[in-house]
Amino acid sequence: MAKKKSKNKSKGQKQPALSPYRFMREKARTLPVGKCYIAPPDWQESGMAHVIVTRMRPSGNLVMGSFLVDTFCLGVKDAGYHENITPYDFEQYLDNYKNGMGLEEISYNEAHNIIYGAMAFAEEGGIKPSKEFDPAGYILEEDTDDIPLIEYDFGKNGKHFLVVNPDRKEMPYYHTLKKNLGDDFEYVMPFGEEYEDDSDDDDEYSPLSKIDSETIKKAFEGMSKWQEESDRHPDEKYTYQYPDYPQTLSVKNQFIADELLSPDNYSCLPREVIDRILALPKDEAAQDISNVMLYSIGKTYKGINDDTIESWNNSAIMHSLILLAQLQSDKGLDAVLEIMRQTDEFADYHLGDLTPELLHPALYACGKDNITAIEAYLSQPGLDSYLRSQAPDALAMIIFNQPERRGEIIEVFRRLLNNMVSNLPVQRACDGTFAGFVMSNLMDIDAKELIPEIKATFATDCVNKTIAGDCKNVIKDIELGRGAIHNDKYQIPDIYEQYESLKKFITKPE
C-alpha cells in the first residue's frame, strides 16, 4: 500500500538523466542523514548485524542503504539500496525486523563505525567487502576523522571467527584467511567437512547461521523480487513531437520575467516579489508566468534531451509552478500541461525531487474547471509515465477540495480504467507504472465505486505491483476506507511556508 508516490527511475526505452546508480554516487551524500537502525539488538553476541541507514530527500521520501555485516570475520557480506522509497514502504520494510529478530534505532555515528570497523577488521584477513557495497556505500559519509570514532570489538576473542554454513559458500574465505593470517583465526565448519574444527561448541553459534539464512536473507530477497517486478514493466516509449516554442519572451509585466529568470532568486523569490505578483489580476499574472514557462522550455529542452545543455542558472519553472498553484487561473493550464509533456530528464533538470510536490497542485489549480483538457492529456500517447501520473493526483485533489464533485471525478477515473484495460498490454497512453500510481490515487479517495474496474485492470497482469500493491491489497485498503496517509499531498500549501521549506534543500549550482 504505497500511498505516497515514489518516482521509479527504471526506464524501458530511455535512460534517465540520473540513473539510480549515478544518484547514489553523485547525490546521496548531499542529502541530510535520517534515522538508522540495527537488527538484531544483540548483534555483538550473534556476530551478524543488519545495519540500515537513511537519508532524507526533499520530497519526503527516503534513500535507504542496507548492509549485512558479519562482525566476527567477513565485514560487509551483502548490501542493497533504494534511492527513492516512500516513508510508508520503508516502515513496511522495517516490520520484517520488528516482527522477527527485533530492531533498534541507533545513531549515524554508531552505524558508520560498525560498518567501516567491520570492513577494516575483515581486510586485515584479506577479505574485501561485497561488490554490492558499491554503490550502496555512497549513502555513508566518507570514513574520515570528521566522524567520531567508536571502538567496537570485532571478531571473537580478538580473532577472526569464520562460520561456514551448510551450503559452504563461505569456504573460499577459509583459504583467504589461511593465506593472510596463517593459523591465527578460528572457524566452524559443517559436520563432515575436512576442515572441521575439533571443538564441540558448534551449537553455540547456531544463531549466526539462522540470522543469515533466514530473516536477513528474506529481506534481501524481498528487495530483489521488488526490483524484478519493477523491471517487468518498462515505461511507454516517449514519442512526443515538440511544437515551436517562443524564441523571444513577451510579457505585460516585465518585472515578472526579470524576477523569475534572475540567478539571484535561484533558491527563493523575495517576499515582496511574491506579494507584488499575487496582487496583480490573476489571469494577467498567470498569462505572463505561462509565457516565461514556455520560453524556458524552448531554451532548455533540446540541450537536456541530447545532454549538451550548459548550466541554466535560474529556477523559473519551479517558481512558476508555485505561483500558478496560488493564482488558480486557467490561463496557466496550457503551460503546466506542456511541462508534463516533457521528458523525465527535463523534470529532473528543472525540478528534481520537487516534481510531484509542485506539478499536480499547479495542474489542479489551473485545470480543475477544465477536466476535458486533463482527460485529453491522459489519452495522448507517447508521454513520460511519471509526469503523466501527476494528472490523476490533480483529479484526486478535486475530490479532497471539492467533495461535491466526487461523482464527476469517479466517472473520469472509470473511463481511465476502462481505457487501460485495452491499452495497457500495448502500452498506449499508459504503462504498468502509471497504472500502479493510479491505484494509489484510488486507494486515497476510497474508490469503492470502481472495484469492478480495478479488478479488470489488474487482470491484464500489466500493473506494476511495487507501486500500490497487488489487486487484493488495493481492494482491501479501499474497502477499509483508510483514505490518504498524507492529506497535505492534496492541498495547496501556504506559499511562504513552502519557500521556507524549499530553501533548506535548494542551493544554487556553482
From TrEMBL:
InterPro entries referenced in this protein's UniProt entry, alphabetically: DUF1186
Highest taxon in the source lineage: Bacteria
Name the UniProt record assigns to this protein: DUF1186 domain-containing protein
Lineage: Bacteria, Pseudomonadati, Bacteroidota, Bacteroidia, Bacteroidales
